[in-house]
Amino acid sequence: MNQDSWSLRESPFTHVPWPGHQPVGLVLDGVAIPELGEQIYQWAGGQTINAECLYVATRWEAVSDLSPWLVWLSGSEDPVLEGFLEQGPRQEQGYLLISATDHASCACWMRSHLQVEVAPGCEELVRIAHPALAATVIGGNLPRFPTRAVDRLIVPDCISEQWHLVEPPAVQSGDIGDQPEKMMASRDLKGAFDAFNRRKGALHIWNNLHESVRNQLGGPDLRDAYPALGRILEEALGNGCNNLREVMQFLFVTLPPQADSNAVTETAPPLNQG
To answer: pTM of the entire structure?
Structure first.
């Protein structure tokens, strides 16, 4: 997996010229953006768009309110892209893909990443529209799919405050129609899901810490404090902490005592955020 990076303050196409002959899609996270379908059409401002709700015509259609959407962009000034760029990258609400095939084949290929079979007849949804998870799962071809429909991903990272250009590994050429309909559980995928949940837990902790504690961790910026925060989270999990409240308690035991009694701004939920 090859990767290049640049600041989130810049356009995602600052270092990647708009492809002349390859479709460019914007994958949006229905978990992160409420009423996503309506939001897309508001961003479009009345212009015709080509957008697909990825849960439609799947077994997950009943929960389409949480579905990822794939919007095919008309150019670097597409109004949906401009709407997303106002806050979406810093909140990690989606990412861009440069397709290696046509719209229909790419959408079908993306749908094969929506679920993972964890046991015979038992499938779980995968939040593949989140950029951090897509960068690992699609970017590393962890499902070991024989074909790929994505040439490159452009994903935002709120921790480093950068765009990352991710090139999935080459695979043998083949018919997208031969693509499996779902991912199968594997050690690599479990590792990616566990890392994703730990990352979400660390971000939730950070968002609820007082500035004084953030400074103790190396802040005030998250990108500077994240190494220490991640290390403490790993130590906490290794010491048997299994929810965010216990992790926060471990953090305050680990750090020097704070005079400020408001070091945490709100009550923490369980560690596994789904």
So the answer is: 0.89
